[in-house]
Specification:
Elements (H helix, E strand, L loop, with lengths): L6 E6 L2 H17 L4 E6 L1 H5 L3 E5 H4 L4 H6 L1 H18 L3 E5 L2 H11 L6 E4 L12 H7 L2 E4 L4 H7 L4 E3 L10 H4 L1 H10 L8 E5 L4 H21 L4 E5 L6 H7 L8 E4 L3 H7 L2 E5 L2 H8 L3 E6 L3 H10 L8 H6 L5 E4 L5 H11 L2 H11 L1 H5 L5 H14 L2
Parallel strand pairs: 1-2, 1-4, 2-3, 4-5, 5-6, 6-7, 8-9, 8-11, 9-10, 11-12, 12-13
Helix pairs in contact: 1-20, 5-6, 10-13, 11-17
């Protein structure tokens, strides 16, 4: 395939989807080294030769008020993507998650005659099911990562393939080994017998604003009852250490260790985790680490979410996949420092913690087999070979 024939437009507007897009680029290069990819992605994707029109780090905002605040910047990227698609005429468009943006983009780009593949499905089974009509009209193929999503799309006559979850490709035997865990913990001053309590407030700035301080307050309460516990703040790949330090209060009432390294390694260092809802819950679950899931939104955004989300019993992705509240969920007004501290305190009981860890092991089975990224590349190839 010549370079001229090798354009793909990729839109990965969030931290998790940009990781999956990065892996897609790396896998695609093995068989199609001359393909040029452009669109929305991360700095890591740029290192792979990706032409970045918009950055994932800047576009990952949540909630009506947050989106409105960044509207002009997001709209500028949206318009530029349409213009560049007209100029470059990509063989295929690969959209990852980020549904409000991506479904509007698909509607604009489909008239150009470019096939549109959607990888990481919008959560239509949870809310705004009316958007299935948009997908039926503008999406040529849907690639889903959760097993319960395929029957939904089959029912609505959407060409859909279950590829498995790409996070499974990130796992290795070393992550589960005790030797690596001890080495990583010792590097940050944790000895073998320490109980390490990890905080994971989210990968977006809007999440930090709403989740970080209440997690810190919860940690303070846990520390008061358990003065020997070690507390660690896991820094998402989308943030620099210096950024997080600016968010923290000057005088903390307990020692807090800031760690930034591979997310799975950070999780593996912990015995219990308080995590914001999202892909992070799947990552914690795959490490078989006991957790409490929380999430807070702006009041208006939460009110709208409650009106629209009617179907699922759970909001934590790990619980949705396991079809049970394996990890305790605390949303909005229930996500208080008192409640979070109480639930974490429960998990400091060895039996309760080990019980949850055992149940989380089912997650690896439920999510399918490794190799999701390669299956995505295979699903894309027919579009690249068409002339």
């Amino acid at each position: 395939m010549s370079q001229e024939e090798g354009n793909i437009l990729i839109v990965a507007g969030e931290a998790s989807s940009s990781l999956y897009a990065l892996r897609f680029l790396q896998s695609l290069k093995k068989t199609h080294p001359n393909i040029k990819c452009f669109g929305v992605g991360s700095r890591e994707m740029e290192k792979e030769g990706f032409d970045c029109i918009g950055r994932s780090e800047d576009m990952a905002v949540v909630g009506l008020q947050e989106v409105l605040a960044h509207y002009s910047d997001i709209k500028k990227v949206f318009n530029e993507l349409i213009e560049q698609a007209r100029k470059r005429k990509p063989k295929v468009i690969l959209l990852l998650d980020y549904p409000d943006f991506n479904l509007r983009l698909a509607k604009k780009l489909k008239p150009l005659g470019i096939p549109v593949v959607y990888y990481i499905s919008p959560q239509l089974w949870a809310w705004r099911t009316g958007r299935i009509k948009i997908i039926q009209k503008y999406i040529d193929k849907m690639l889903v990562v959760f097993p319960f999503e395929k029957p939904f799309y089959d029912e609505h006559n959407v060409d859909c393939e279950f590829v498995g979850h790409p996070l499974l490709d990130e796992l290795s035997e070393d992550l589960y080994g005790e030797e690596g865990r001890k080495e990583w913990r010792n590097r940050y001053g944790f000895v073998d017998d320490d109980i390490v309590f990890g905080l994971m407030p989210g990968s977006r700035r809007s999440e930090l604003k709403l989740n970080l301080m209440v997690q810190i307050e919860a940690a303070e309460r846990v520390h008061q009852k358990n003065p020997n516990i070690k507390i660690m703040l896991a820094i998402a790949p989308s943030f620099d250490l210096s950024e997080i330090q600016e968010w923290l209060p000057e005088n903390l009432n307990f020692p807090l260790v800031l760690v930034k390294r591979d997310p799975f390694e950070m999780i593996r260092m912990c015995d219990v985790v308080l995590t914001a809802s999202g892909t992070a819950t799947v990552m914690v679950g795959l490490m078989h680490t006991a957790m409490v899931v929380m999430y807070r939104m702006k009041k208006l955004t939460a009110w709208i979410a409650r009106k629209l989300v009617k179907g699922p019993k759970y909001f934590g992705m790990v619980n949705l996949v396991l079809e049970d509240e394996v990890a305790k969920e605390l949303f909005q007004e229930k996500a208080t420092p008192e409640n979070m501290a109480s639930e974490i305190q429960n998990l400091l009981d060895d039996n309760l913690r080990k019980s949850q860890q055992e149940r989380l092991k089912q997650l690896n089975v439920k999510l399918g087999n490794a190799g999701a990224t390669e299956r995505v590349v295979e699903a894309i190839k027919p579009y690249l070979e068409e002339h």
